[in-house]
Protein backbone atom coordinates (compact mmCIF):
# COMPACT_ATOMS: atom_id res chain seq x y z
CA UNK A 1 0.00 0.00 0.00
CA UNK A 2 1.48 3.22 -0.99
CA UNK A 3 2.25 5.98 1.36
CA UNK A 4 -0.53 8.43 1.71
CA UNK A 5 -0.08 10.66 -1.12
CA UNK A 6 -1.49 13.79 -0.39
CA UNK A 7 -1.07 17.22 -0.53
CA UNK A 8 -2.60 20.18 0.20
CA UNK A 9 -4.33 23.15 -0.66
CA UNK A 10 -5.15 25.26 2.24
CA UNK A 11 -7.99 26.85 0.93
CA UNK A 12 -7.99 30.26 2.41
CA UNK A 13 -11.10 30.67 0.51
CA UNK A 14 -12.19 33.60 2.47
CA UNK A 15 -13.92 35.93 0.18
CA UNK A 16 -15.41 39.33 0.33
CA UNK A 17 -19.14 38.80 0.41
CA UNK A 18 -20.92 41.12 -1.93
CA UNK A 19 -24.44 42.26 -1.33
CA UNK A 20 -27.23 40.27 -3.02
CA UNK A 21 -29.36 41.81 -5.75
CA UNK A 22 -31.52 44.57 -4.41
CA UNK A 23 -35.02 45.67 -5.38
CA UNK A 24 -35.64 48.31 -8.00
CA UNK A 25 -37.69 51.36 -7.18
CA UNK A 26 -41.22 51.61 -8.53
CA UNK A 27 -40.03 54.00 -11.21
CA UNK A 28 -37.45 51.45 -12.37
CA UNK A 29 -34.65 53.91 -11.69
CA UNK A 30 -31.14 53.58 -10.41
CA UNK A 31 -31.30 56.87 -8.57
CA UNK A 32 -28.39 58.79 -7.13
CA UNK A 33 -29.79 60.63 -4.17
CA UNK A 34 -30.48 60.01 -1.42
CA UNK A 35 -28.76 56.68 -0.68
CA UNK A 36 -31.36 54.19 -1.89
CA UNK A 37 -30.89 50.45 -1.62
CA UNK A 38 -30.05 50.48 -5.30
CA UNK A 39 -27.32 53.05 -4.82
CA UNK A 40 -25.90 51.11 -1.91
CA UNK A 41 -25.43 48.24 -4.30
CA UNK A 42 -23.87 50.46 -6.94
CA UNK A 43 -21.41 51.92 -4.43
CA UNK A 44 -20.58 48.54 -2.91
CA UNK A 45 -18.23 47.62 -5.73
CA UNK A 46 -16.37 50.89 -5.14
CA UNK A 47 -15.92 50.10 -1.48
CA UNK A 48 -14.83 46.47 -1.90
CA UNK A 49 -12.96 46.38 -5.19
CA UNK A 50 -10.44 43.73 -4.18
CA UNK A 51 -8.06 42.02 -6.54
CA UNK A 52 -9.61 39.07 -8.35
CA UNK A 53 -7.48 36.01 -7.77
CA UNK A 54 -8.98 34.34 -10.75
CA UNK A 55 -8.26 37.08 -13.25
CA UNK A 56 -4.57 37.57 -12.48
CA UNK A 57 -2.61 34.37 -13.03
CA UNK A 58 0.57 34.00 -11.03
CA UNK A 59 3.65 32.60 -12.77
CA UNK A 60 6.67 31.05 -11.11
CA UNK A 61 9.88 30.17 -12.96
CA UNK A 62 10.29 26.40 -12.66
CA UNK A 63 14.05 26.84 -12.17
CA UNK A 64 13.40 28.52 -8.81
CA UNK A 65 11.00 25.83 -7.52
CA UNK A 66 12.19 22.86 -5.44
CA UNK A 67 11.73 19.29 -6.68
CA UNK A 68 11.19 16.33 -4.37
CA UNK A 69 12.63 12.85 -4.50
CA UNK A 70 10.37 9.89 -3.82
CA UNK A 71 11.82 9.52 -0.31
CA UNK A 72 11.32 13.21 0.51
CA UNK A 73 7.73 13.18 -0.77
CA UNK A 74 6.94 10.14 1.39
CA UNK A 75 8.58 11.68 4.46
CA UNK A 76 6.64 14.92 4.06
CA UNK A 77 3.36 13.01 3.87
CA UNK A 78 4.27 11.03 6.97
CA UNK A 79 5.10 14.25 8.80
CA UNK A 80 1.81 15.86 7.78
CA UNK A 81 -0.22 12.90 8.95
CA UNK A 82 1.84 12.34 12.05
CA UNK A 83 3.01 15.25 14.23
CA UNK A 84 1.19 17.87 12.18
CA UNK A 85 -2.20 16.19 12.62
CA UNK A 86 -3.59 15.97 9.12
CA UNK A 87 -5.85 13.09 8.14
CA UNK A 88 -5.72 11.16 4.89
CA UNK A 89 -9.16 12.27 3.79
CA UNK A 90 -8.40 15.90 4.59
CA UNK A 91 -5.26 15.92 2.43
CA UNK A 92 -7.05 14.01 -0.34
CA UNK A 93 -9.87 16.54 -0.34
CA UNK A 94 -7.44 19.43 -0.63
CA UNK A 95 -5.46 17.67 -3.37
CA UNK A 96 -8.57 16.95 -5.44
CA UNK A 97 -9.73 20.53 -5.10
CA UNK A 98 -6.30 21.68 -6.31
CA UNK A 99 -6.64 19.52 -9.40
CA UNK A 100 -10.15 20.77 -10.14
CA UNK A 101 -9.20 24.43 -9.83
CA UNK A 102 -6.15 23.91 -12.05
CA UNK A 103 -8.34 22.32 -14.72
CA UNK A 104 -10.81 25.20 -14.46
CA UNK A 105 -8.00 27.74 -14.95
CA UNK A 106 -7.26 26.45 -18.46
CA UNK A 107 -10.08 24.25 -19.74
CA UNK A 108 -13.35 26.16 -19.43
CA UNK A 109 -16.59 24.17 -19.17
CA UNK A 110 -18.04 25.99 -22.19
CA UNK A 111 -15.46 24.21 -24.37
CA UNK A 112 -14.27 21.27 -22.27
CA UNK A 113 -17.31 20.13 -20.31
CA UNK A 114 -17.04 16.34 -20.79
CA UNK A 115 -14.50 14.98 -18.32
CA UNK A 116 -13.41 11.37 -17.78
CA UNK A 117 -11.55 10.71 -14.52
CA UNK A 118 -9.60 7.44 -14.69
CA UNK A 119 -8.86 6.51 -11.08
CA UNK A 120 -6.43 3.94 -9.72
CA UNK A 121 -6.88 1.95 -6.51
CA UNK A 122 -4.75 4.18 -4.26
CA UNK A 123 -4.63 7.73 -3.02
CA UNK A 124 -3.95 9.15 -6.48
CA UNK A 125 -7.24 7.61 -7.54
CA UNK A 126 -8.90 9.17 -4.50
CA UNK A 127 -7.61 12.55 -5.65
CA UNK A 128 -9.27 11.92 -8.99
CA UNK A 129 -12.61 11.09 -7.38
CA UNK A 130 -12.51 14.27 -5.32
CA UNK A 131 -11.50 16.33 -8.37
CA UNK A 132 -14.43 14.92 -10.34
CA UNK A 133 -16.87 15.93 -7.61
CA UNK A 134 -15.57 19.50 -7.55
CA UNK A 135 -15.61 19.69 -11.35
CA UNK A 136 -19.26 18.64 -11.27
CA UNK A 137 -20.00 21.59 -9.00
CA UNK A 138 -17.94 23.85 -11.28
CA UNK A 139 -20.31 23.08 -14.17
CA UNK A 140 -18.48 20.21 -15.89
CA UNK A 141 -20.00 16.82 -16.77
CA UNK A 142 -17.63 14.23 -15.29
CA UNK A 143 -17.68 10.47 -15.72
CA UNK A 144 -15.61 8.00 -13.69
CA UNK A 145 -13.65 4.94 -14.75
CA UNK A 146 -12.66 3.18 -11.50
CA UNK A 147 -11.73 -0.42 -12.34
CA UNK A 148 -10.03 -1.55 -9.12
CA UNK A 149 -12.18 -0.28 -6.29
CA UNK A 150 -11.16 -0.68 -2.68
CA UNK A 151 -13.54 -1.51 0.15
CA UNK A 152 -12.03 1.06 2.52
CA UNK A 153 -14.63 3.47 3.88
CA UNK A 154 -12.74 6.54 2.67
CA UNK A 155 -13.05 5.44 -0.94
CA UNK A 156 -16.55 4.01 -0.72
CA UNK A 157 -17.61 7.34 0.74
CA UNK A 158 -16.14 9.21 -2.24
CA UNK A 159 -18.00 6.89 -4.60
CA UNK A 160 -21.27 7.42 -2.72
CA UNK A 161 -20.82 11.20 -2.94
CA UNK A 162 -20.43 10.99 -6.71
CA UNK A 163 -23.36 8.62 -7.11
CA UNK A 164 -25.55 11.02 -5.13
CA UNK A 165 -24.76 13.64 -7.79
CA UNK A 166 -25.69 11.16 -10.57
CA UNK A 167 -22.12 11.18 -11.87
CA UNK A 168 -21.89 8.11 -14.12
CA UNK A 169 -19.35 5.33 -13.61
CA UNK A 170 -18.07 3.65 -16.75
CA UNK A 171 -16.35 0.25 -16.87
CA UNK A 172 -13.19 -0.26 -18.90
CA UNK A 173 -15.15 -2.49 -21.27
CA UNK A 174 -17.75 0.23 -21.87
CA UNK A 175 -15.26 2.99 -22.69
CA UNK A 176 -15.77 4.17 -26.28
CA UNK A 177 -13.21 3.05 -28.83
CA UNK A 178 -12.60 6.67 -29.78
CA UNK A 179 -12.34 8.63 -26.52
CA UNK A 180 -12.38 11.93 -28.40
CA UNK A 181 -16.02 11.39 -29.40
CA UNK A 182 -17.25 11.35 -25.81
CA UNK A 183 -14.71 13.32 -23.76
CA UNK A 184 -12.89 16.64 -23.84
CA UNK A 185 -10.64 16.14 -20.78
CA UNK A 186 -9.18 13.01 -19.22
CA UNK A 187 -7.97 13.13 -15.63
CA UNK A 188 -5.07 10.70 -15.21
CA UNK A 189 -5.36 9.73 -11.54
CA UNK A 190 -4.06 6.21 -11.93
CA UNK A 191 -0.67 6.03 -10.20
CA UNK A 192 1.08 8.42 -7.81
CA UNK A 193 4.63 8.92 -6.55
CA UNK A 194 4.81 5.71 -4.50
CA UNK A 195 4.07 3.46 -7.46
CA UNK A 196 6.92 1.41 -8.92
CA UNK A 197 7.20 -1.48 -11.33
CA UNK A 198 5.25 -2.16 -14.50
CA UNK A 199 1.52 -1.30 -14.69
CA UNK A 200 -0.72 -4.35 -14.51
CA UNK A 201 -4.10 -4.96 -16.19
CA UNK A 202 -6.30 -3.18 -16.83
CA UNK A 203 -4.19 -0.07 -16.34
CA UNK A 204 -1.45 -1.13 -18.76
CA UNK A 205 -3.96 -1.21 -21.61
CA UNK A 206 -5.53 2.09 -20.50
CA UNK A 207 -2.13 3.81 -20.47
CA UNK A 208 -1.39 2.49 -23.96
CA UNK A 209 -4.68 3.93 -25.19
CA UNK A 210 -3.93 7.31 -23.65
CA UNK A 211 -0.51 7.34 -25.33
CA UNK A 212 -2.17 7.26 -28.75
CA UNK A 213 -4.40 10.31 -28.22
CA UNK A 214 -3.77 13.31 -30.41
CA UNK A 215 -5.07 16.81 -29.63
CA UNK A 216 -8.37 15.84 -27.98
CA UNK A 217 -9.19 14.88 -25.37
CA UNK A 218 -6.53 16.69 -23.39
CA UNK A 219 -4.89 14.77 -20.56
CA UNK A 220 -4.42 16.15 -17.05
CA UNK A 221 -2.09 14.08 -14.86
CA UNK A 222 -2.35 14.21 -11.08
CA UNK A 223 1.11 14.67 -9.51
CA UNK A 224 2.84 11.97 -11.60
CA UNK A 225 1.99 11.09 -15.22
CA UNK A 226 1.02 7.43 -15.03
CA UNK A 227 3.77 5.16 -16.30
CA UNK A 228 6.54 7.61 -15.32
CA UNK A 229 9.24 6.94 -12.76
CA UNK A 230 8.83 9.41 -9.91
CA UNK A 231 12.43 10.62 -10.26
CA UNK A 232 13.60 9.64 -13.74
CA UNK A 233 10.44 10.51 -15.64
CA UNK A 234 9.35 8.63 -18.75
CA UNK A 235 12.77 7.03 -19.14
CA UNK A 236 11.41 3.91 -20.86
CA UNK A 237 8.98 5.74 -23.11
CA UNK A 238 5.93 3.88 -21.87
CA UNK A 239 4.20 6.65 -19.97
CA UNK A 240 1.44 9.15 -20.64
CA UNK A 241 2.37 12.49 -22.19
CA UNK A 242 -0.11 14.87 -20.54
CA UNK A 243 -1.10 18.34 -21.66
CA UNK A 244 -1.31 19.46 -18.02
CA UNK A 245 0.56 18.28 -14.96
CA UNK A 246 -0.77 19.25 -11.53
CA UNK A 247 2.06 18.74 -9.04
CA UNK A 248 1.01 18.45 -5.41
CA UNK A 249 2.90 19.88 -2.40
CA UNK A 250 6.00 20.38 -4.56
CA UNK A 251 6.94 19.02 -7.99
CA UNK A 252 8.59 15.62 -8.00
CA UNK A 253 11.90 15.18 -9.80
CA UNK A 254 10.18 13.64 -12.81
CA UNK A 255 8.40 16.95 -13.44
CA UNK A 256 11.65 18.36 -14.80
CA UNK A 257 11.00 16.20 -17.86
CA UNK A 258 7.46 17.50 -18.35
CA UNK A 259 7.22 19.36 -21.67
CA UNK A 260 3.49 19.98 -21.90
CA UNK A 261 2.02 23.49 -22.04
CA UNK A 262 0.47 23.67 -18.55
CA UNK A 263 2.26 22.89 -15.30
CA UNK A 264 0.46 23.83 -12.09
CA UNK A 265 1.34 23.43 -8.45
CA UNK A 266 -1.65 22.63 -6.28
CA UNK A 267 -1.82 23.12 -2.56
CA UNK A 268 -0.81 26.15 -0.60
CA UNK A 269 -0.22 24.27 2.57
CA UNK A 270 3.35 23.42 3.39
CA UNK A 271 4.08 24.57 6.99
CA UNK A 272 7.25 26.66 7.54
CA UNK A 273 8.84 23.88 9.57
CA UNK A 274 8.55 21.44 6.66
CA UNK A 275 9.74 24.01 4.12
CA UNK A 276 12.79 24.76 6.27
CA UNK A 277 13.64 21.10 6.90
CA UNK A 278 13.61 20.20 3.21
CA UNK A 279 14.86 23.62 2.02
CA UNK A 280 11.81 24.00 -0.20
CA UNK A 281 11.51 26.93 -2.55
CA UNK A 282 7.80 27.25 -3.31
CA UNK A 283 5.88 29.96 -5.16
CA UNK A 284 3.47 32.36 -3.55
CA UNK A 285 -0.19 31.91 -4.39
CA UNK A 286 -2.15 34.95 -5.52
CA UNK A 287 -5.00 36.01 -3.24
CA UNK A 288 -7.15 33.00 -2.38
CA UNK A 289 -6.07 30.93 -5.38
CA UNK A 290 -5.78 27.17 -4.88
CA UNK A 291 -3.16 26.67 -7.59
CA UNK A 292 -0.31 28.49 -9.25
CA UNK A 293 1.20 28.05 -12.69
CA UNK A 294 4.88 27.19 -12.73
CA UNK A 295 7.31 26.95 -15.60
CA UNK A 296 7.27 28.83 -18.86
CA UNK A 297 3.99 30.32 -20.08
CA UNK A 298 2.42 28.31 -22.88
CA UNK A 299 2.89 29.46 -26.46
CA UNK A 300 -0.38 30.81 -27.70
CA UNK A 301 -1.58 31.16 -31.28
CA UNK A 302 -3.53 34.37 -30.90
CA UNK A 303 -5.18 33.93 -34.29
CA UNK A 304 -6.71 30.67 -33.08
CA UNK A 305 -8.17 32.08 -29.86
CA UNK A 306 -11.94 32.15 -30.05
CA UNK A 307 -15.07 31.23 -28.12
CA UNK A 308 -18.13 29.68 -29.69
CA UNK A 309 -20.97 31.46 -27.92
CA UNK A 310 -24.17 29.65 -26.98
CA UNK A 311 -26.96 32.00 -25.86
CA UNK A 312 -30.70 32.52 -26.04
CA UNK A 313 -31.77 34.41 -29.15
CA UNK A 314 -32.30 38.16 -28.87
CA UNK A 315 -35.45 38.86 -30.89
CA UNK A 316 -37.13 42.11 -31.76
CA UNK A 317 -40.53 41.05 -30.48
CA UNK A 318 -39.09 40.08 -27.09
CA UNK A 319 -37.22 43.26 -26.16
CA UNK A 320 -38.57 46.36 -24.47
CA UNK A 321 -39.59 49.26 -26.71
CA UNK A 322 -37.67 51.61 -24.40
CA UNK A 323 -33.90 50.88 -24.43
CA UNK A 324 -33.47 52.17 -20.89
CA UNK A 325 -35.93 49.53 -19.68
CA UNK A 326 -34.14 46.90 -21.77
CA UNK A 327 -30.82 47.95 -20.23
CA UNK A 328 -32.33 47.76 -16.75
CA UNK A 329 -33.58 44.24 -17.51
CA UNK A 330 -30.15 43.07 -18.63
CA UNK A 331 -28.43 44.88 -15.76
CA UNK A 332 -30.72 43.22 -13.22
CA UNK A 333 -30.04 39.81 -14.75
CA UNK A 334 -26.27 40.42 -14.60
CA UNK A 335 -26.56 41.42 -10.94
CA UNK A 336 -28.69 38.36 -10.16
CA UNK A 337 -26.08 36.16 -11.88
CA UNK A 338 -23.48 37.41 -9.41
CA UNK A 339 -21.19 38.99 -12.00
CA UNK A 340 -18.37 41.06 -10.55
CA UNK A 341 -18.66 44.83 -10.98
CA UNK A 342 -21.71 44.73 -13.19
CA UNK A 343 -21.60 48.52 -13.28
CA UNK A 344 -18.09 48.69 -14.76
CA UNK A 345 -18.11 50.33 -18.19
CA UNK A 346 -15.60 51.48 -20.78
CA UNK A 347 -15.90 55.23 -21.32
CA UNK A 348 -14.57 56.51 -24.66
CA UNK A 349 -13.99 60.20 -25.31
CA UNK A 350 -12.23 62.35 -27.91
CA UNK A 351 -10.55 65.72 -27.54
CA UNK A 352 -10.78 68.72 -29.86
CA UNK A 353 -8.22 67.10 -32.16
CA UNK A 354 -10.45 64.03 -32.43
CA UNK A 355 -7.89 61.80 -30.71
CA UNK A 356 -9.79 59.05 -28.87
CA UNK A 357 -9.07 57.61 -25.43
CA UNK A 358 -10.81 54.95 -23.35
CA UNK A 359 -10.81 53.84 -19.72
CA UNK A 360 -12.92 51.82 -17.30
CA UNK A 361 -15.19 53.72 -14.91
CA UNK A 362 -18.13 52.79 -12.69
CA UNK A 363 -21.73 53.63 -13.47
CA UNK A 364 -23.30 55.25 -10.42
CA UNK A 365 -26.85 55.72 -11.54
CA UNK A 366 -29.17 55.65 -14.55
CA UNK A 367 -32.75 56.48 -15.42
CA UNK A 368 -34.65 58.01 -18.33
CA UNK A 369 -32.51 61.16 -18.01
CA UNK A 370 -29.22 59.43 -18.64
CA UNK A 371 -26.24 57.49 -17.28
CA UNK A 372 -24.12 59.01 -14.52
CA UNK A 373 -20.51 58.55 -13.37
CA UNK A 374 -18.13 60.64 -11.25
CA UNK A 375 -14.57 61.80 -11.77
CA UNK A 376 -12.06 64.59 -11.42
CA UNK A 377 -13.08 67.27 -13.93
CA UNK A 378 -9.40 68.01 -14.61
CA UNK A 379 -8.61 64.41 -15.56
CA UNK A 380 -7.99 63.31 -19.15
CA UNK A 381 -11.61 62.28 -19.61
CA UNK A 382 -12.79 65.50 -17.99
CA UNK A 383 -10.57 67.53 -20.30
CA UNK A 384 -11.78 65.62 -23.36
CA UNK A 385 -15.42 66.16 -22.43
CA UNK A 386 -14.90 69.87 -21.92
CA UNK A 387 -13.54 70.07 -25.49
CA UNK A 388 -15.93 67.61 -27.11
CA UNK A 389 -19.01 66.82 -24.95
CA UNK A 390 -19.88 63.50 -26.57
CA UNK A 391 -18.98 60.01 -25.40
CA UNK A 392 -19.62 56.29 -25.80
CA UNK A 393 -20.16 53.74 -23.04
CA UNK A 394 -19.58 49.99 -23.30
CA UNK A 395 -20.76 47.38 -20.81
CA UNK A 396 -19.39 43.85 -21.25
CA UNK A 397 -20.87 40.97 -19.25
CA UNK A 398 -18.66 38.08 -20.33
CA UNK A 399 -20.37 35.26 -18.46
CA UNK A 400 -23.68 36.12 -20.13
CA UNK A 401 -22.22 36.68 -23.64
CA UNK A 402 -23.63 40.21 -23.63
CA UNK A 403 -22.50 43.73 -24.27
CA UNK A 404 -24.29 47.06 -24.49
CA UNK A 405 -23.05 50.16 -26.33
CA UNK A 406 -24.51 53.59 -25.55
CA UNK A 407 -23.70 56.89 -27.27
CA UNK A 408 -24.78 60.45 -26.72
CA UNK A 409 -23.99 64.00 -25.55
CA UNK A 410 -22.55 64.55 -22.07
CA UNK A 411 -23.07 67.27 -19.50
CA UNK A 412 -22.08 67.89 -15.90
CA UNK A 413 -24.67 67.06 -13.27
CA UNK A 414 -25.68 69.68 -10.71
CA UNK A 415 -23.29 70.65 -7.94
CA UNK A 416 -25.90 69.55 -5.40
CA UNK A 417 -26.05 66.04 -6.88
CA UNK A 418 -22.27 65.79 -6.87
CA UNK A 419 -22.05 67.07 -3.31
CA UNK A 420 -24.63 64.59 -2.04
CA UNK A 421 -23.03 61.63 -3.77
CA UNK A 422 -19.53 62.59 -2.64
CA UNK A 423 -20.58 62.55 1.02
CA UNK A 424 -22.31 59.19 0.59
CA UNK A 425 -18.96 57.58 -0.27
CA UNK A 426 -16.67 55.92 2.31
CA UNK A 427 -14.50 58.52 4.03
CA UNK A 428 -11.38 56.89 2.64
CA UNK A 429 -12.71 57.37 -0.89
CA UNK A 430 -13.51 61.01 -0.13
CA UNK A 431 -9.93 61.58 0.99
CA UNK A 432 -8.66 59.70 -2.05
CA UNK A 433 -10.52 62.09 -4.34
CA UNK A 434 -8.69 65.01 -2.71
CA UNK A 435 -5.29 63.32 -2.86
CA UNK A 436 -5.50 62.21 -6.50
CA UNK A 437 -4.91 65.00 -8.99
CA UNK A 438 -6.11 62.55 -11.57
CA UNK A 439 -4.00 62.11 -14.74
CA UNK A 440 -1.24 64.40 -13.44
CA UNK A 441 2.34 63.13 -13.09
CA UNK A 442 3.45 62.16 -9.56
CA UNK A 443 7.06 61.45 -8.50
CA UNK A 444 6.11 58.22 -6.70
CA UNK A 445 3.37 56.31 -4.93
CA UNK A 446 4.73 57.43 -1.56
CA UNK A 447 3.60 60.98 -2.32
CA UNK A 448 -0.02 59.82 -2.54
CA UNK A 449 0.29 57.73 0.62
CA UNK A 450 1.88 60.54 2.60
CA UNK A 451 -0.85 63.02 1.72
CA UNK A 452 -3.52 60.40 2.33
CA UNK A 453 -2.16 59.69 5.82
CA UNK A 454 -1.94 63.39 6.57
CA UNK A 455 -5.57 64.02 5.58
CA UNK A 456 -6.74 60.89 7.39
CA UNK A 457 -5.30 62.27 10.61
CA UNK A 458 -6.74 65.72 9.89
CA UNK A 459 -10.28 64.37 9.58
CA UNK A 460 -9.98 61.61 12.18
CA UNK A 461 -12.40 63.54 14.41
CA UNK A 462 -15.25 62.71 12.05
CA UNK A 463 -15.63 66.23 10.71
CA UNK A 464 -17.04 66.79 7.23
CA UNK A 465 -14.53 66.22 4.44
CA UNK A 466 -15.03 68.96 1.83
CA UNK A 467 -15.63 67.92 -1.77
CA UNK A 468 -12.95 69.16 -4.15
CA UNK A 469 -14.29 71.83 -6.50
CA UNK A 470 -12.88 69.95 -9.47
CA UNK A 471 -14.68 66.69 -8.63
CA UNK A 472 -18.20 65.77 -9.69
CA UNK A 473 -20.47 63.85 -11.99
CA UNK A 474 -21.22 63.61 -15.69
CA UNK A 475 -24.44 62.47 -17.30
CA UNK A 476 -24.64 60.95 -20.78
CA UNK A 477 -28.01 61.45 -22.47
CA UNK A 478 -28.35 58.50 -24.87
CA UNK A 479 -29.32 58.89 -28.49
CA UNK A 480 -28.17 55.40 -29.50
CA UNK A 481 -28.14 51.97 -27.85
CA UNK A 482 -26.89 48.65 -29.19
CA UNK A 483 -27.60 45.35 -27.44
CA UNK A 484 -25.29 42.48 -28.46
CA UNK A 485 -25.84 38.81 -27.66
CA UNK A 486 -23.12 36.32 -28.66
CA UNK A 487 -24.31 33.41 -30.83
CA UNK A 488 -22.75 30.31 -32.44
CA UNK A 489 -20.66 30.63 -35.60
CA UNK A 490 -20.26 34.39 -35.02
CA UNK A 491 -23.89 34.99 -36.09
CA UNK A 492 -24.42 37.30 -33.15
CA UNK A 493 -27.61 39.20 -32.38
CA UNK A 494 -27.27 42.99 -32.61
CA UNK A 495 -30.28 45.19 -31.94
CA UNK A 496 -29.81 48.93 -32.32
CA UNK A 497 -32.09 51.57 -30.83
CA UNK A 498 -31.83 55.02 -32.41
CA UNK A 499 -33.72 58.32 -32.42
CA UNK A 500 -34.73 60.37 -35.44
CA UNK A 501 -34.87 64.12 -35.21
CA UNK A 502 -38.27 65.35 -34.10
CA UNK A 503 -39.51 61.86 -33.19
CA UNK A 504 -39.31 60.78 -29.52
CA UNK A 505 -40.00 57.11 -30.35
CA UNK A 506 -37.06 54.74 -30.49
CA UNK A 507 -36.51 52.85 -33.73
CA UNK A 508 -35.25 49.26 -33.41
CA UNK A 509 -33.09 47.79 -36.18
CA UNK A 510 -31.22 44.51 -36.47
CA UNK A 511 -27.59 44.88 -37.54
CA UNK A 512 -25.51 42.27 -39.32
CA UNK A 513 -22.96 40.71 -36.98
UniProtKB/TrEMBL annotation:
Metabolic or biological pathway, per its Swiss-Prot or TrEMBL entry: Cofactor metabolism; pyridoxal 5'-phosphate salvage; pyridoxal 5'-phosphate from pyridoxamine 5'-phosphate: step 1/1; Cofactor metabolism; pyridoxal 5'-phosphate salvage; pyridoxal 5'-phosphate from pyridoxine 5'-phosphate: step 1/1
Catalytic activity: (6R)-NADHX = (6S)-NADHX; (6R)-NADPHX = (6S)-NADPHX
Binding site for K(+): 124, 188, 226
InterPro entries recorded: Pyridox_Oxase (IPR000659), Pyridox_Oxase_CS (IPR019740), Pyridox_Oxase_N (IPR011576), Pyridoxamine_oxidase_dimer_C (IPR019576), Split_barrel_FMN-bd (IPR012349), YjeF_N_dom (IPR004443), YjeF_N_dom_sf (IPR036652)
YjeF N-terminal domain segment(s): 73-282
An annotated Gene Ontology molecular function: pyridoxamine phosphate oxidase activity
Entry binding sites for (6S)-NADPHX: 123-127, 192-198, 223
A Pfam family per the record: PNPOx_N
Cofactor(s) it depends on: K(+); FMN
EC number annotated for this UniProt entry: 5.1.99.6
Top-rank taxon, per record: Eukaryota
Key words of the record: Flavoprotein, FMN, Isomerase, Metal-binding, NAD, Nucleotide-binding, Oxidoreductase, Potassium, Pyridoxine biosynthesis
GO biological process: pyridoxine biosynthetic process
Leading EC class: isomerase
Co-factor remark: Binds 1 potassium ion per subunit.
PROSITE patterns xrefs: PYRIDOX_OXIDASE, YJEF_N
SUPFAM superfamilies per the UniProt record, alphabetical: FMN-binding split barrel, YjeF N-terminal domain-like
Recorded family membership: Belongs to the NnrE/AIBP family.
Subunit structure: Homodimer.
Function of the protein: Catalyzes the epimerization of the S- and R-forms of NAD(P)HX, a damaged form of NAD(P)H that is a result of enzymatic or heat-dependent hydration. This is a prerequisite for the S-specific NAD(P)H-hydrate dehydratase to allow the repair of both epimers of NAD(P)HX.
The name this protein goes by in its record: NAD(P)H-hydrate epimerase
